[in-house]
Amino acid sequence: MNEIVILSGKGGTGKTSLSAAFATINNNTIVADCDVDAANLHLILQPVNYYDRNFTTGSKALINYDTCTNCGLCIDYCRFDAISFHREKVTISEISCDGCKLCSRICPSHSIQMIPSDKSRWYAGNYRNGKMVHARLAPGEENSGKLVNVVREHAKKTAQETGWETIIIDGPPGIGCAVISSITGTNKAIIVTEPTNSGFHDMKRVLEITANFKVKTVVVINKYDLNESISSKIENWCVENNIPVVGKIAFDPEIVMAMINCQSITEWKPESETSKEIIRIWNQVKTDKCIIQR
Amino acid sequence: MTDHSNLKIAVASGKGGTGKTLVSTNLFWALQNTGTQVTLVDCDAEEPNMAEFISGEVLVRLPVTQNIPVIDSEICTFCGKCFNYCNYNAIVYLPSNHFIKVVEDLCHDCGACTVACRFGAISEKEKQLGTVKTMFLNSNAELIEARADVGVYSPVPVIKKAIHSVNDRSLAIFDSPPGISCPFIATVESADFVVLVTEPTTFGLNDLKLSVETLQQLKKPCGVIVNRAGLGNREVYDWLKANKIPLLLEIPFDREIARIYSEGLLLVEEKPAYQLLFRELLKTIEKLVKR
């Protein structure tokens, strides 16, 4: 099994557009969209889902007003500022509630119940080049790292069942727990960056994480011609630090046009320079030729 | 321009990289140029990068901490009540070995274990989560940066502390973290109005819908700025119209703007026409809030 994760640090560098292209070059591909907070890849791959499951992130406190004496003791105990008097009535803000259950335990009239929050969902489906697993975290939910684990586990199970080799993981932006869950145990990481100071800075933070997890990592500079001097700065830095830059992609409005037409760029304009460069990058990464052992 | 205002405006976006920081830094700069009392708060505590564009003289640096329980195994009777009370599996409890310990990374600082203990075996110590830095720009303008330490499970307490540090009488702009999970909610909760920045693409619209849905649950008024206008299609505009969500401003796609941003420069300084546009933006928001 070959698990390849696409990351960026900074949002908006073109991570998902590239993931979509990689996912539509070969058949028998498995895709795991691990950007569960703002999932977008399904808009291009349009899977027909055969699975649709709940995901329980924790629980929320709920007051039974038939027995509540409005004493307000729970307000004193709550450390998340989730309970207050609203129009002279004890009220719990569902969005601020952390699910610690302390209010329910200390309530003298036993009027607070914990309700599981299961509004997050995950899905699995068929798309034109293979199978896709994706998810949607409900607004304000925590535990995105756990949801990423569920998505990746199912992708691996699918790989075992089908005997297909490659899993492409579209990772979340940032450096938080969901990113770590997306990287753990993968074979390779591709970091998509852009020539801006913030893109450069965030790329270095993600590289620290992939190095910690000993994942072989390569860099792609997207929209490199929007600032060629920062692009060279990034390239030189990568050379000095022994990180292969496997490709540079010019800014191409056709990538946006492809997205609007629900296609990847390699499907939309297969003969364009952009597509050729992306296919070249993918073949290189897949066959491992470019990757220097760090 | 001194007639207002202590409005709190959050600048947010579901999708990363749409131009949130471009809007918040330039709105701040355009307003401080006119002598408005204004504070810019970088609430993106995981990846703060306001300082790449604007910086000032550091006035205060406050540590943000949470409480972590400490169990004194000399006093502990190994009754297991704290272990049962902890809803985050943050207490390891092996009574037969007389072993009990708090896993600090899993602790949410809810206080349940200290309430549970009848023997006074649990006290609390402080653990640092991050820092809030206040910077002085001039007599009217301040900058506040929330920065979470690497490896911290939630930046929310750091964000809340940064927002609490804002002078009540000052107009404030909160640069929100991306997404729709707790860090975003902690930021927009204290705002009077939310400016959502999007781009006119399929991904931009999809993430915009998620943000609007979340803000409607919170009953927060919002409006939209379309960045990189001219790329993509009209889908976003049609959706805004159909859902009666105000379009506040359009910033065209322009290689020159991309270059200015990439180098950490400010649009309102490099292209003075934007001064006026950003000042108008505030007026538009004020009208919408009054309504």
3D architecture notes:
The complex is a heterodimer of chains A (294) and B (291). Chain A is α/β, with parallel strands linked by helices. Chain A folds into two domains: 2-56 and 120-287, 3-Layer(aba) Sandwich (Rossmann fold), CATH 3.40.50; 58-117, Alpha-Beta Plaits. Helix content of chain A is 36%, strand content 26%. Mean pLDDT of chain A is 92; it is low at 290-294. Chain B is 32% helix and 28% strand. Chain B has ten helices and eleven strands. Chain B has helices at 20-33, 81-85, 112-116, 156-164, 182-188, 202-217, 235-242, 255-262, 267-270, 273-290, and strands at 8-12, 38-42, 57-71, 91-94, 99-102, 122-136, 141-148, 171-175, 193-198, 222-229, 247-252. Chain B has a nine-stranded mixed beta sheet, with helices on both faces. A two-stranded antiparallel ribbon of chain B has the order 4-5. In chain B, helix 6 (202-217) links the parallel strand 9 and strand 10. The mean pLDDT of chain B is 92. The chains are: A alpha/beta (294), B alpha/beta (291). The interface between A and B is large, with 54 and 50 residues.
What tags apply to this protein structure?
heterodimer, A: 294 residues, alpha/beta, Rossmann fold, Alpha-Beta Plaits, 2 domains, two-stranded antiparallel sheet, 11 helices, elongated, disordered C terminus, B: 291 residues, nine-stranded mixed sheet, two-stranded antiparallel ribbon, 32% helix
The CATH class of the largest domain in chain A, by name, is Alpha Beta
Tally the helices of chain B.
10
**Gyration radius of chain A, rounded:** 23 Å
Could you give me the name of the CATH homologous superfamily of the largest domain in chain A? P-loop containing nucleotide triphosphate hydrolases
Oligomer: heterodimer
What's the arrangement of strands in the largest beta sheet of chain B?
3-6-7-2-8-1-9-10-11
User: Could you say how many structural domains of chain B there are in total?
Assistant: 2
Structural class of chain B, by secondary structure, is alpha/beta
Percent helix among the residues of chain A? 25-40%
Largest sheet of chain A: 9 strands, mixed
